[in-house]
């Protein structure tokens, strides 16, 4: 980001400190009736990073966020935030945390600015009209400050929720599906705001159904399913470790089985034998090399193909494989 937008002094002040800001050890939550939402979760979040927590519905994402924000009481394990035990220092820790929940929660008959002021005061912060204005302007809400919330669009209501979460200047911010139900333009504005928060040193943990956003914005990615963390790593490391190459050869003549000359490659037939599909590699370029070798071997052995399409797996492909319990992916993770 252009430092002139913030001012040199502000950038210097807000540069993130290194170290762990949140530590979860053996975190468990079992609801009445025996449903286990969190099953021994271990997770460390670094100060100043954007961390994306991905998982299908019911995976435990919202329960995990609720436990850290004091909305859900864990049945086991430990939460340490800012170096303090959450159970012993809840009040001090909670005022330094911001939350934008999935569900919209405010008095729809109240004015935008009053709701944001109320949120700041609720956390014990002194009144600061300049800061309130700054937050509202950053979210394109300043010109709507005196409107009743009920008159706003769904996307603007979501912005009010973010403004409420930012009003007390949290150091750790949770965004639970922040762009759900928001149009493309508003989504882009929100991500610009998130990028600005990162520049100011705010640590951000988000859940999202838009995995391409996690791939674009997050420093690290975690995948949770059935209350257990399956994978946590730098997104580039995930792509290198679990990425795959897929190639489809369109055959001139259909095959009933894979010829012995190429049977050692990870291949299968589709489209009644008219398509030979390769899925392999390891994110290091091995897949591309093997596809090139395959093409040469097929030509040498008289296997004519009329088309070739290749693609590299995305973070979404890897996520889907993980939550569908594909054994080769889970083993690699």
Automatic annotation (TrEMBL):
Signal peptide: none annotated. One of its GO terms (molecular function) is ATP hydrolysis activity. The keyword Nucleus does not apply. It comes from the Bacteria. It holds the Pfam family ABC_tran. Keywords: ATP-binding, Nucleotide-binding, Transport. Residues 22-251 form the ABC transporter domain. Transmembrane segments: none annotated. The keyword Transport applies. This is Multidrug ABC transporter ATP-binding protein. It comes from Aurantiacibacter atlanticus.
